[in-house]
Amino acid sequence: xxxxxxxxxxxxxxxxxxxxxxxxxxxxxxxxxxxxxxxxxxxxxxxxxxxxxxxxxxxxxxxxxxxxxxxxxxxxxxxxxxxxxxxxxxxxxxxxxxxxxxxxxxxxxxxxxxxxxxxxxxxxxxxxxxxxxxxxxxxxxxxxxxxxxxxxxxxxxxxxxxxxxxxxxxxxxxxxxxxxxxxxxxxxxxxxxxxxxxxxxxxxxxxxxxxxxxxxxxxxxxxxxxxxxxxxxxxxxxxxxxxxxxxxxxxxxxxxxxxxxxxxxxxxxxxxxxxxxxxxxxxxxxxxxxxxxxxxxxxxxxxxxxxxxxxxxxxx
Length: 316
Ligand code: ASP
Prior knowledge:
binds aspartic acid, Aspartate carbamoyltransferase, Rossmann fold, single chain, pyrimidine biosynthesis, 12 helices, four-stranded parallel beta sheet
């Protein structure tokens, strides 16, 4: 079966079998990454450019490592120091880079839709590393791989996504992915942080943690995205922690073997209690980081295969 996309811009256009295809290949890369020689040759000879217009720790490091482990020439553009600061438009920057013949462009941008726009202007494959509050596809894929490994399946699970749903691209990509794989998705958060019309996505909406967490298999916590807030969305962090911060008492409403996830960066004592985050029997947060490298290796490998294939083969 083929992966019928040139780019990885979001979860929205992916078919369930394409999601499974990335996850299955990522499993192989998990094994490779756990071995001594962590090298593959899927990207040998290819050039990967990482353009991050927004801060990143995990995602940038993980894309960089993924590319290097598969043999690509990897370059990180520091967009803080780039010509963007001198007034160059995103498109001009893209065209300049395009002239250097990259094969894979990994882009993070604060504006929703900016990465899609850029993908239309360049010849190479583009991977969205997070655009505004729109999508963060590799995060949802690494979350899916973490869930599938912990629970043994990725369907008919009950998953709670808690906190700042409105500003979160992680929530959006996860809602789409978990829905496509036929899971029950429960969103929990204050009404001020819940996007209007979200119920149309086939999710259940709760304002109360005890109610929403009832019998879930997975608890996914989100950071308060203060950089995307332009007003008072919560009364205070203390009050927010009291009502929505994940602690042992609230977690007790979930299934006894429920796993706890967080995409990072974490604000301990705001959306999650530090002891829960560090509890190796419940928290899979470090495993999420590990799966991130494997999933990004798989995603770039699959797109690189399409770069080498003819257009007819890609569509077949
Ligand atoms: N690292 C994730 C993102 O880039 C989540 C977060 O920042 O809270 O969206």
